[in-house]
Design goal:
single chain; alpha+beta
């Protein structure tokens, strides 16, 4: 199960439909479906927004691999190297006014997913997001 999108945020509804179809196929509940949709949207929008130089077309591929007790969502792109797992968690104790803009995406992804793993291989960013399912 694989979906490839260009770096155009107008294509996000296709991602949502893809995730909903996957969740339906594996009989996941609505809360899990909504959480996965949020995590994947955060990750994919980041790639669409930052991986490629402005004005150039690039692609992001989302592949889903079903394991015995989990789903792996493998997000890959050929944009500039970026490891989101090295980002520190934001200080959520600060007031909204004191917090720097941005940085919540990877935090949200870490809260929803069970494993977040990054590697750079053959000039591709590969972000694997694992969700344990029972």
């Amino acid at each position: 199960m694989k979906l490839t999108l260009s770096n155009d945020i107008e294509q996000i509804p296709q991602l949502s439909e893809f995730i909903e179809n996957i969740c339906e196929k594996f009989c996941l509940d609505m809360d899990t479906t909504m959480s996965l949709n949020l995590a994947l949207e955060e990750a994919v929008v980041n790639v669409m927004s930052y991986a490629y130089p402005e004005g150039t077309t690039g692609y992001v591929t989302i592949e889903v691999v079903k394991g015995p007790q989990y789903l792996d969502f493998i997000i890959s792109d050929s944009g500039k190297p970026f490891n989101p797992t090295t980002k520190d968690d934001p200080d959520t104790n600060l007031s909204l006014e004191e917090r720097p803009i941005g940085g919540l995406g990877i935090h949200i992804i870490r809260q929803i997913m069970d494993i977040v793993h990054y590697e750079r291989k053959a000039n591709h960013n590969i972000l694997t997001l694992r969700k344990n399912i029972h």
